[in-house]
């Protein structure tokens, strides 16, 4: 199964593309949606889609920015561009960043199917790298849960796995280690703005470089005022409880509560045991269950009232969290 993410700020277009992909069935499954490039990049690091279908023109960060970020970070993801008649030059620029294809709006199902098949043919080039990227991401997902000794051991394990890998070319090892180093540097700098970046060079002593980064992270994290951070996370949760039906992105929340995105993402997961997106979805699905049991609203009306912008997205999240579709849930309760 190939995991697809759809990025489009116009909800009706996003829903239409999601529906097309799901109707194709077979090898493709929509696992996430986003309404701008910034939200998409944050979501990528949570769900790791195989293929990203993205619009060009979007608010905050557009599709060209997203495609460039995916290419420059050398993420193991194939991109497909959606474009309008007057955006052709942007699409050409996206192709420079290795976009697989671009589709002209309005999108035809046959053209989307062909583009996905073309993207699928390119996926084997990332087969070896994907496992290592996921290992790196899992370390950062859990980094606040490690004590110092466990973190040193896990970091060293990942580095040694990359260095000793027989299924990787030397240039691929360099890409992975640079990515690992960049993510560490980004994380530390987001928590400590005056931190001096520690660039990675393939010729240097690799173990010493990552040992230094781990030491820097531990010093930075231990210096945080954790009492203050707990209070911020508590205020965020109170806000979401009252406003779960509204559309929220991580960037919206961090601006409202004056905290960096990296700090927020790490600490939210530490104190709540799940990501911001999963927490918000859990709130929405909990409320949706009450509405479904009540029986007065149609499923699409429930989806709208709890904050989902598309019915397919609501159905997908509901089944992920409950093991049943909304209609199956109603039948199970004889509603």
Automatic annotation (TrEMBL):
Classification via Pfam families: HTH_18, Response_reg
Alphabetical UniProt keywords: DNA-binding, Phosphoprotein, Transcription, Transcription regulation
Positions of modified residues (4-aspartylphosphate): 55
InterPro entries for this protein: CheY-like_superfamily, Homeodomain-like_sf, HTH_AraC, HTH_AraC-typ_CS, Sig_transdc_resp-reg_receiver, Tscrpt_reg_AraC-type_HTH
SMART domains per the UniProt record, alphabetical: HTH_ARAC, REC
Keyword Transcription regulation part of the UniProt annotation: yes
The keyword NADP is assigned to this record: no
Domain HTH araC/xylS-type: residue ranges: 234-332
PROSITE patterns found in the cross-reference section: HTH_ARAC_FAMILY_1, HTH_ARAC_FAMILY_2, RESPONSE_REGULATORY
Domain Response regulatory: 3-120
Domain of life: Bacteria
Protein name as it appears in the record: Two-component system response regulator YesN
Source species: Paenibacillus aceris
């Amino acid at each position: 199964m190939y995991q697809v993410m759809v990025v489009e700020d116009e909800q009706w277009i996003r829903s239409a593309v999601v529906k097309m992909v799901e109707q194709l069935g077979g090898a493709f499954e929509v696992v996430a949606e986003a309404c701008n490039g910034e939200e998409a990049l944050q979501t990528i690091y949570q769900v790791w889609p195989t293929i990203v279908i993205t619009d060009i023109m979007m608010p905050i960060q557009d599709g060209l920015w997203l495609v460039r970020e995916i290419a420059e970070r050398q993420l193991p993801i194939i991109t497909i561009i959606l474009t309008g008649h007057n955006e052709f030059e942007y699409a050409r620029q996206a192709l420079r960043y290795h976009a697989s294809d671009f589709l002209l709006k309005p999108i035809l199902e046959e053209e989307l199917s062909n583009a996905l098949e073309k993207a699928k043919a390119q996926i084997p080039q990332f087969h070896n790298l994907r496992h290592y990227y996921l290992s790196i991401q899992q370390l950062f997902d859990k980094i606040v849960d490690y004590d110092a000794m466990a973190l040193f051991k896990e970091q060293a394990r990942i580095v040694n796995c990359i260095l000793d890998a027989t299924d990787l070319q030397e240039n691929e090892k360099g890409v992975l280690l640079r990515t690992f180093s960049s993510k560490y540097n980004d994380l530390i700098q987001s928590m400590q703005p005056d931190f001096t970046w520690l660039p990675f060079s393939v010729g240097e002593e690799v173990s010493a470089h990552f040992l230094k980064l781990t030491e820097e992270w531990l010093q930075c994290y231990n210096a945080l005022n954790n009492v203050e951070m707990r209070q911020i996370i508590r205020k965020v949760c109170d806000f979401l409880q009252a406003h779960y039906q509204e559309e929220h992105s991580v960037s919206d929340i961090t601006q409202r509560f004056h905290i960096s995105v990296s700090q927020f993402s790490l600490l939210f997961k530490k104190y709540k045991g799940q990501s911001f997106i999963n927490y918000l979805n859990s709130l929405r699905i909990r409320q949706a269950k009450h509405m479904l049991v009540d029986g007065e609203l149609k499923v699409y009306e429930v989806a709208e009232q709890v904050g989902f912008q598309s019915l397919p997205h609501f159905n997908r999240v509901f089944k992920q969290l409950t093991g049943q579709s909304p209609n199956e849930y109603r039948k199970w309760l004889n509603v």
